[in-house]
Design brief:
two-stranded antiparallel sheet; three-stranded mixed beta sheet; single chain; 140 residues; 6 helices; alpha+beta; 5 strands; CBS-domain
């Protein structure tokens, strides 16, 4: 196994982001069209939060009891903003951290994605899927 592999070798570099002021519909479109589950939220060029597809599902599920299915998304998205739904106080990692150290963060904190930041700039995102695929590659 490649003990000292840095996450820069396996992270996604072309990160889809949303602005804190973007509508929730935009995030939902990214989740569905790009087949992703986590989006860093940017405000004034800095990461201020993370939005997951599960965050949207949670608010949609809560709304589905009171609104017809065809109108659930519109109703929910009129009631909430990205700022209200996103997770704040995001833990970030640096590109020179090892896969092992990031895997430990995933295991201890139960995160599924972490933004990769260098000099206060978003340079990538690392997910549990990236780490699992890396580990699987070690056995081929």
């Amino acid at each position: 196994m490649k003990e000292g592999t840095r996450i820069s070798a396996i992270m996604t570099r072309n990160v889809v982001t949303v602005q804190v002021t973007d509508p929730l519909e935009r995030a939902e479109q990214y989740f569905k069209k790009k087949h992703i589950r986590h989006i860093p939220v940017i405000e004034k060029g800095l990461i201020t939060g993370m939005l997951s597809y599960n965050d949207l599902l949670r608010i949609s599920f809560a709304d589905s009891y009171s609104v017809a299915d065809d109108f659930t998304s519109d109703s929910v998205y009129d009631m909430f903003s990205i700022d209200q739904v996103m997770v704040r106080n995001v833990t970030s990692v640096t590109p020179n951290m090892t896969v092992r150290s990031v895997a430990r963060i995933f295991a201890e904190k139960e995160f599924h994605a972490l933004p990769v930041v260098e000099d206060d700039q978003l340079v990538g995102i690392i997910t549990t899927t990236d780490v699992i695929n890396f580990l699987l590659d070690q056995y081929e």
